[in-house]
Amino acid sequence: MRREALLLLWLAGPAWAQEDAPAEDAPAADAPAAESAPVAPAADTPAAGAAPVAPAEAPSTPAESAPTPPEAPSIPAESAPTPPEAPESETTEAAAVPVADEAPFVADWRLALRGGASFVLDDAFDAVADGPTTGGGEVGVDYRLSDSIWVGASWSGRGRAGDVFDDVQTSWSGVSLRASVAWRHDLLPWLDVFGRAGPSVWWYDLELTPAGGSQAHVEASTWGAHAGLGVDVYFLHPSFTDDALEGLALGLSVEATWDQVLAIDVADGGTDFGDIDPSGPGFLFGFALAF
Amino acid sequence: MRRLLLGLLLLAGCDRAGYLDRPLGASGPYALEARAAWLLAGEPAVAFYDPVADDLTRAALDADPVAAVPTADGTALLVLDAAGGATWIGAETRRYDLGASFTAVTWAPDGHTAIVHHAPGAASGPLITNPNQIAILDVARPAGEGNPVRRTLRSFGAVPRSVVIAPAARVAGAERQLAWVLSERYLALLDLAAPTAREVIVHLTLAEDAREVVPAQVVAGEIEGRAAAFVRAQGSQDVFALTFPDEAAPDAVPRPSLNLLPAGGEPSDLLADAERVFTANGRAGTVAVLDPVTGRRRVVDVGAPVARILPFTAPRADGEGEGRFALLWAPGGEAVVFADLDRLELRAGQAVTPLRLEGRVVEVAPLPGRRGAAARLENDRLVLLDFDDRTATPLVLAGGASLGPMRVDPDGDRVYALVQGGPDGAALVTVGVETGAPTSVALRSGARDLLVLPAARRLLIDHGKQTGEITVVPMGAAGEATERSNLLLEGMFDR
Description:
Shape of chain B: globular
Number of helices of chain A: 8
Oligomer: heterodimer
Distance between the termini of chain A: 27 Å
Strand content of chain B: over 45%
CATH topology of the largest domain in chain A: Porin
Number of strands of chain A: 10
Strand content of chain A: over 45%
Strand order of the largest sheet of chain B: 1-2-3-4
Structural class of chain A: alpha+beta
Number of strands of chain B: 42
Largest sheet of chain A: 8 strands, antiparallel, barrel
Largest sheet of chain B: 4 strands, antiparallel
Structural class of chain B: mainly beta
């Protein structure tokens, strides 16, 4: 239930952001105008400095004083073209400039929670289940070392239950601790591509439970390595939402992976069942949070 | 990306080998000389376990196995399959096309000739089978012309019940190996040395005789130097004596002449030597001594039901050299009888020594190399019988324990028995014959069968699990027992 609630929360996130955006934009546009009214004229001080003083009354003066003495028209002739609204329109355009010039969002940390499938290519796995697919997931954290280079650690798990010989129940699971070095590149502020690789250590657990027989339970650990290529797409990003999510980006992450693991010898109760090599491809899909 | 997803989907849909989806279908184990074997119908294959090397190997079969029969010497296994074939697995593996799916094998004493036939009531293969069809097989030769010989026996309203093959001998002027196919009211006689020769049918009853006479035992013998065979049949109080002519064509089955020897009761067992025939007449509690030449009969009341004759030789108490004796017993009987076969006809009741036991007999196993036997009683007691002293030494198990299968080792030094429900739960009890002292080894779980693998000097206890759960016990070192669970799954990831 918590998983569904979380998912709804995340899905609703962009909608909230879109609904809130006009409300935030309006004051943003107004505020600079109001605040910049005294500022913008300051930039135009030479021209506008006289306008508030003399021109305020000058327009009516020339019209009414057309028949006035000849030296008088020279003054209204200079001040007449300055309309009272002109300073306001100039200050509105000038107000957008400071926001556009803010520094781009740069995250130093990234958290990812993803699920997916991996495939065991070794035919030996046929004796565990009627297909090579195992389901699993990974939670990981990455830290930026430089512009493109990240380091990370993750905890992943996968498993599969099945049967063999009709009445022997099987249960296969493995968890691993992974370290990785990743290269990341921002194609767009909200779109990253990345590749990563690193060593891993696996702890596997296999149970064979024959109907009416003795259960075989094998626990084994082994070393391995992993690699992957993926994309992060941030649907909530500071470039979309200004400072409402300042310093935070939330998006989807998908990655194609390959796990290479040393084969495991499965033996229990004096019986050597043989070796399983759990290596193979897989994919991960889920959420990424950068900050 | 679409291509990647398609590839992953295809990968996810891969099918595995079909045998992994079928039940293991294990049957056995079968005891061989140095190995134990299981039929694996699901693969199909035979799994051989070598307890000395602690190694399991598999031999693939071409079709689903139906039955397996070890050779008499225990060095090989013949597996019958549902596709009408037989696979002989010994020093090498050979497959023979028998033309029908059979269910039983009877080996000749030579260890390589066999008659493959249908067991009564067993069904396999197609919906309709010809129960009179047999195959004569020589596993010492590869399949080819004349091996196997497939043939159908003439039927006189019955189907074969069992097969007996006599040792090769000179009969009717030629070296022959006679085989008897036993059917209700008649026998079919074959010569395996001339496997294509037309069989001879020996009717045990007249056509108008409505009795249900079922031949059950054939014993080779002699009558006045001529080859003979004695047949015991259920439903008859006679022993059928078949005497062969002095000469017959080597490529034909010799035609015997039939005589009846009244036994004075329905015989349950038969023993023949060069001069006499002995029958144990179970219900009557008598032993008959028959002279096949004169037809003279001496029936001796032994005072207890006797259905089995276990012959042995022993020095005579009176110092007159070796004598021929027998232990007579019957399943369910409360006594055994020692009989002096040499003096039985002459001294009748004085030549028998009954020995009352403390319970009903279930089984008696002779001790190889010794004049003694071990008996298992219904009241969960083991008894050591001393043939010299005519005594019985009971071994009482702990209260509540029930006695299971009993075996003796090839040297006759020890008796092994499985017990359930004792203080240790399931256990293997070993009794030293010399000392009579029992020792016990607790087992992990209940046991179904106890096998002796003589050449490996090991006992194999089968715990009756489908995936193969066994305990291996070195003979004479029960404390070094090792357990194996899921044995038949060994190497499942490596195939």
